[in-house]
Structure formats: C-alpha cells, structure tokens
Design brief:
This protein is an all-alpha fold. It is built from four helices and no strands.
C-alpha cells in the first residue's frame, strides 16, 4: 500500500505517532534494575520530561565519578593506553 492508497490525505500519522513517554513519566529505573541509588536517581533525572529539570553534564559526571570504583576513576581504559602508544 502506498501513501496515496491510505485514504488519509497522505498523512502517515496515527498510532505510530503516539509516544507514551510524553504523557507519562518513565518508571523508576530501580524498579527494573539493581543499581546504586545515586546512579539510578541520575538516570531517572535524565528521563524527566522537562529538559530544565534534568541534571547537567557536571552533575552527571559527579555521580558517575562517585559511582565508579576508585581504581577505574584513576586509570584510563586499556584501549585508550594502546591508542596513546600508536
């Protein structure tokens, strides 16, 4: 079926244009995953409908830095070390 055969004036709208996340908040990530509380709160914050209410990049960086084990925060991943040697 082509667009002209749909009989709706060529509008491809309908059910495919419905985005539930625009009408309802996402469920808390901790309801589906086992994550540290602060990390889950940061992810939930990123999913807020209002962009002004979402965390900033520095806020996210602080949460990620505090969540990662100390050793991983202080060293680059092995793949980055190999690229630096090239």
């Amino acid at each position: 079926m082509t667009v002209d055969e749909t009989g709706d004036g060529g509008d491809m709208g309908g059910q495919d244009d419905w985005y539930p996340q625009l009408e309802e908040p996402a469920p808390p990530v901790r309801s589906r995953r086992r994550l540290p509380r602060d990390l889950a709160a940061a992810i939930d914050g990123c999913l807020r409908p209002d962009p002004a209410a979402r965390p900033t990049i520095p806020e996210l960086a602080d949460v990620l830095d505090a969540t990662l084990p100390w050793q991983r925060r202080r060293t680059a991943p092995p793949s980055a070390d190999r690229r630096a040697e090239s």
